[in-house]
Specification:
Radius of gyration: 17 Å
Number of helices: 10
Structural class: alpha/beta
Strand content: 5-15%
Bound molecules: ligand PTJ
Number of strands: 8
CATH class: Alpha Beta
Distance between the termini: 35 Å
Shape: globular
CATH topology: Rossmann fold
Length: 245
């Protein structure tokens, strides 16, 4: 039972905080995930807790990139699973694309708990990290991937993480669509498309964009991607944060 009354002025933010705490209690999210979430909260506060045009433009480009992909994969960590498991599962069905569990802080139990949580939300295919397939240019636990998933992906949706794997994937020629409230992070900078927004707000927008764009001819996806200018988008997000308005 939630202890947050809907009338509370910070209801939406407090509900997300509850979801992350519940994630820790269910063995899905790491304790470090609480700290990462707090950093996200602070940046969201500065950004005005709303989805700005720079985020909407990135959502559309990201949706087009995922639709254009030959083999898209959705990477899921402990924070994303706690916040938007249902949305990630719906995205997997819509594209279609497999979900793959990939976490930074090693824990077999947590990997299993994340997979079970995704399946409970209706995910049909959840790929797990393996020893057989490993990414280059990275030494953390994130290097262990699935041979049929991230290992052979051409585009990976990577919501909310540290930057190492994003950089490694880019060096391997894989495109990355990320959601990160920090436009200065290595993830946001190294990504092909960075949606600077709260993952909880961006997820329904991304689902809507994919549902709309998949009706359009593939040539229009290419145009959408070409009209996305990564540095300009990141500068606009940073300017919004710095303005303090
Ligand atoms: O489950 P694991 O082991 O894979 O761990 C996941 C975390 C998130 C703990 C791990 O990847 C990590 O430590 O990430 P960082 O380096 O703290 O980066 C997380 C980034 O996500 C930061 O730039 C935060 O500002 C940002 N962030 C946090 N919450 C949100 C967010 N971005 C969008 N939406 C959020 N709700």
């Amino acid at each position: 039972m939630s202890e947050v009354p809907p009338s509370h002025p910070r209801y939406a933010s407090l509900k997300l905080r509850e979801a992350i705490v519940a994630g820790v209690e269910q063995g899905i999210t790491s304790l470090h995930g609480l700290i990462a979430h707090g950093r996200g909260e602070a940046l969201d506060y500065l950004i005005g807790e709303t989805s700005h045009p720079f985020a909407i433009a990135a959502v559309r480009a990201g949706a087009a990139m995922l639709l254009r992909a030959r083999h898209p994969v959705i990477s899921v960590n402990g924070n994303a699973a706690a916040l938007v498991a249902g949305g990630l599962t719906a995205l997997g069905r819509l594209l279609p694309a497999p979900l793959e569990v990939n976490i930074f802080h090693p824990s077999k139990e947590r990997e299993e708990a994340i997979a079970a949580h995704l399946r409970a939300q209706g995910a049909e295919e959840v790929l797990m990290p393996t020893q057989e397939a490993q990414l280059s240019y990275i030494e953390s636990n994130r290097r262990f991937v699935h041979p049929e998933g991230i290992f052979k992906a051409d585009v990976v949706f990577v919501p909310l993480e540290d930057g190492d794997r994003c950089q490694a994937l880019q060096r391997m020629g894989v495109e990355v669509v990320t959601v990160d409230l920090n436009p200065l992070s290595r993830t946001a900078r190294a990504a092909s498309v960075a949606i600077v927004d709260n993952l909880a707000r961006a997820m329904p927008l991304l689902l809507q964009a994919v549902a709309q764009l998949r009706q359009d001819p593939p040539a229009s996806w290419q145009e959408r991607i070409a009209s996305y200018h990564h540095d300009t988008i990141l500068r606009a997000a940073e300017a919004r944060i710095r303005s303090g308005a």
